[in-house]
Design goal:
The chain is α+β, with helices and mostly antiparallel strands. The chain is 26% helix and 33% strand. It has three domains: 134 residues, 2-Layer Sandwich (60s Ribosomal Protein L30, Chain: A), CATH 3.30.1330; 118 residues, 60s Ribosomal Protein L30, Chain: A; 108 residues, RutC-like (60s Ribosomal Protein L30, Chain: A).
């Protein structure tokens, strides 16, 4: 019972603070899990939560590890229902997706993504979750999960894949399916898609072909250097079906207006991605009447000439990566104090100890997962993505 009281006391304390991100780390010893949770709230507004669940007992067998994570997820969901929150989206990061599929519970209530990116703490799985207060969830016939708010429908498509063909044909099939889904909802890739995650099996070999196929597809959809692209992470990852070389998750917003969306450049630190043959935005912001969502794409140790900075030195690359992220956040009117979650990808599992200490020292309570996932350019030893929420007041737009 103490565990529940401790958590609810923490939540109650958070509620008294408004218009900011508050992060806390909580250990549920009876489940042997570490929970990091971030809450954004505005005075008189509604709340958003991001949370990560990581296992402390990595010696438990596979079935037990999944049971502990699932129990922790259900407990957190139950506790947040006291604040009228619903679970919107969750992603499992797992060490062996083919053999772990039997332990993953499917549900129609929220968007679910599962990707083989082994957690670097040695566990079988970690979990990232997103909760929103006072929302309704609906799953469409095409498996799009819709979070319905009074003024906007938020569209989550996960685990888009194709099981036949080469990289180019799989990429085209995935985007065809996604664009068809958007069209049926009165949306388009160019106007409504905010963020994608593209997981590429054997990224060192397959990423370049995917990037070419995506660029050509984007050109047909009027996504060009003269218009804009989409915030994205392109990274090593495997799906349940080994023949699916590409898998994609995507987030879009219906009823959004062009003037609500802006694209981050940070030209002092970064160059446009099309200069080295890829097509994604460094970051994207979405403004509502009461908050700004900031989506930072997968970011690495790069300069504004497209060159790798600090080759072979993971610590210095991590410093430069966060310097680049901070430059993007500054352009968005944000700081690291507004960050709601972080995902850290490392190429070499032997770098985990030093980078884990770095994150613990710099950002101890921000929800995060650290994963083995090589980046799209082999010289990059680390990549980081994040999402931030900034309080604003803009009467031109409806509230979130």
């Amino acid at each position: 019972m103490y565990i529940y009281k401790n958590f609810l006391t923490t939540v109650s304390r958070i509620v008294k603070k408004v218009s900011m991100i508050i992060c806390n780390t909580i250990e549920w010893n009876d489940l042997s899990v570490m929970l990091r949770i971030a809450k954004f709230s505005t005075e008189g507004g509604m709340c958003e939560y991001y949370a990560t669940i990581e296992l402390n007992n990595i010696s438990a067998d596979t079935e037990m590890q999944y049971r502990l994570i699932e129990e922790a997820s259900q407990r957190l969901t139950g506790l947040l229902r006291f604040e009228a929150c619903c679970l919107v989206w969750k992603r499992f990061f797992v060490s062996d997706v083919i053999n772990h599929a039997v332990y993953l519970k499917t549900t129609e209530d929220e968007a679910l993504s599962v990707v083989q990116q082994p957690p670097l703490n040695g566990s079988k799985a970690s979990l990232l979750l997103y909760f929103v207060e006072r929302s309704r969830m609906k799953t469409e016939a095409d498996k799009t999960v819709v979070m319905k708010r009074p003024h906007y429908d938020h569209l989550f498509n996960t685990q888009l894949h194709e099981r036949t063909g080469d990289v180019t044909s799989q990429t085209n099939a995935i985007f065809d399916r996604y664009c068809d889904s958007l069209f049926r909802k009165g949306c388009s890739l160019a106007k409504n898609c905010i963020r994608t995650w593209i997981f590429v099996h054997d990224v060192d070999v397959q990423y370049a072909e995917m990037a070419v196929a995506r660029r050509k597809y984007f050109e047909r959809e009027d996504l060009t250097p003269q218009t804009h692209f989409v915030a994205s992470t392109g990274i090593e990852g495997r799906y349940i079906h080994p023949e699916a070389v590409i898998m994609m998750d995507a987030y879009a917003i219906a009823n959004i207006q062009p003037e609500q969306i802006n694209y981050l450049k940070a030209p002092t630190h970064l160059n446009p991605t099309y200069e080295y043959g890829v097509t994604f935005e460094r970051g994207t912001t979405v403004d509502y009447g009461d908050r700004r969502h900031v989506f930072i794409s997968g970011t690495a140790s790069i300069n504004n000439r497209g060159e790798i900075v600090h080759p072979f030195d993971v610590k210095q690359q991590t410093d430069r990566t966060f310097e680049n992220i901070q430059a993007l956040l500054t352009e968005a009117g944000a700081t690291m104090q507004h960050v709601a979650h972080i995902i850290v990808y490392l190429r070499d599992i032997a770098d985990y100890a030093v980078i884990s200490r770095y994150i613990d020292q710099q950002y101890p309570d921000i929800p995060r997962v650290m994963l083995w996932a090589p980046v799209c350019r082999s010289g990059w030893l680390v990549e980081v993505e994040c999402m931030a929420i900034v309080p604003i007041e803009n009467k031109k737009f409806n509230k979130f």
